[in-house]
Amino acid sequence: MRVIGALILGVAIAGGLAVATRAAEDQPAAQSEAKAPPASTVPVTPKDAAPPPSVTIIGASDAHGVLGRDVRSAADEDMGRIVDVIVDREGHVRAAAIDFGGFLGVGSRKIVVDWNALRFGKIANKKDSITLELTKAQVAAAPEYKEDTPIVVLGASGSLQPLQAIQ
Fold first, then answer.
1. Secondary structure in 3-state letters for the chain
2. Which of 36, 55, 137, 142 is most exposed, with minimal Cβ within 10 Å?
3. pLDDT averaged over the chain?
4. Each residue's pLDDT tens digit, 80-105
């Protein structure tokens, strides 16, 4: 019995030493992992990073916004002001919506005119107007523009090409 007890005690001591030795061997690895920087601080560069955007510089006297600009006829009649620009599915400018008629916004209606019927000439400042190659009577007879309905575009003679049918 004593022999068996001594044998069990010897095996237990040997097993304990083996476990302690493995723990001591694993400890330096754990310490070296702890010394490594966290993954969030390591810079990561995507393989397919987007190139930087291109830059175009347009001189202050070379381009101007058109929204809110007054529109006048060739006979210098007040035709209203541009309130919207209409583009097709490809992003090409097709027409301009003009707030036409009325007084101080009362009684006015939106009319859509072909972009090619507009002449921009001298628009160096906000007070300069855009010229429309249509008469006041022609614009007055045009149907009103309403969003989410088919757009009737009033154009100068022969300058408008129809939009492709939506399929």
1. CHHHHHHHHHHHHHHHHHHHHHHHHHHHHHHHHHHCCCHHHCCCCCCCCCCCCCCCCCCCCCCCCCCCCEEEECCCCEEEEEEEEEECCCCCEEEEEEEECCECCECCEEEEEEHHHEECCCCCCCCCCEEECCCHHHHHCCCCCCCCCCCCEECCCCCCCCCCCCC
2. 55
3. 74
4. 999 999 999 999 999 999 999 766 66
Structure tokens at 78: 């007040």
Distance CA 144, CA 96 (A): 13
Q: Which residue has the tokens 């019927």?
A: 117
Contacts 24+ apart (CB under 8 A), 81-87: 82/130, 83/110, 84/110, 86/112, 86/151, 86/153
